[in-house]
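I am writing to request your help with a piece of structural work I have in hand. The matter concerns a single protein, recorded as an amino acid sequence and a row of backbone structure tokens. Could you please explain, in whatever detail you think fit, how the structure tokens follow from the sequence? Thank you for your consideration; the sequence and its tokens are set out here:
>
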Amino acid sequence: MKMKKWTGLLLAGCMAAGALAGCGGSSTGSTQTGGGEGSEELTWKIGMIGPLTGPVAIYGTDVKNAGQIAVDEINAAGGINGYQIEYRAEDDEHDAEKAMNAYNTLKDWGMQILAGAVTSTPSTAVEALTAEDNMFQLTPSGSSKACIEEANAFAVCFNDPQQGTKSAEYFAEHFPDAVIGTLYDSSTEYSAGIEANFESKGAALGLDIADVESFTADNNTDFTAQLNKLKSAGCTYVFMPIYYQEASVILQQAANMGFTPDFFGCDGMDGILDIEGFDTSLAEGLMLLTPFAADAEDELTVNFVENFRSAYEKTPNQFGADQYDGIYALKLAIEKADLTPEASVSDICEALKTAITQIEVDGLTGTITWAASGEPDKEPKAVMIKDGAYVSIEG
């Protein structure tokens, strides 16, 4: 069962009905009466948890907003199996304890499915709660393998080992003669996990990894020592599986010392162009592996980006695209399982665990299928920053 490339057939009506709702508070979506006078309203209640404030709010707000666009489109087209969706977002500030509090808030609200959390540590913390409640959890962007250890948990994004392996494969195909250095955060599971798999797969593929440098969360403001070592090793490419905040500092310090390799990152790099006060010219030529390219010319992407920009006055990042695809995956899986909102949270979860492995989503981030392990399968893309914008790299 495949989600086709959604065209303009939804857009005029759904955006007129939904854009204002998408820009508003954390709970939106129409409801549909489930019976005669006095009956309770029956809706699908989908929750989202993510950093809506704090240092990585760029991720959480795009996930919230892209999910809202998908919900508004689906509701305008009649909902899921005839029932509308309510979509509510809670802030976790990229903190595990706050994520668990947010989960309990959403549970009290009546959440039936969790489309979150956004980042890995909160996703893993919340997974313990969803597993206990047997609630279906689909994280758009929690990339640690720990996020999908439980049978009820699935992901839309590549996990950390996948990102490292696919990055090495991309280097082997496109830059086989590169002299490569790596610079990563050894204190985070995200960065260290990607780097370890990049090194391992790179060695198997015969990549020339000339130098490996690291830093920690306690030492992430001065990178000159690491950059000097990478420069001395003759690195022409530097692989940085890190978050955009540290990357922005590294790019500035590399420029200051005249070190100009090609820098290459993963999904954590997405957002660097949105840092307030950052000189985006420093990121010129930066590449990152991503399943989503905002400048892609297929109709689905063009319409999504146009609607997102219209509603939120910015270009969506891949985290938002993952959530958009995730909401549509939930729709298809619910339809595949022929579920209605009367079902219990546990019954919904049991049905979706099977149904999601039987669907195929042709979405913003590629054609996606899922294994019972919770891992997605799709092809990555590479983008480059050119003239202050992400541009697809062909081939």
About this structure: The two ends are 28 Å apart (CA to CA). Residues 57-76 form the longest helix (20 residues).
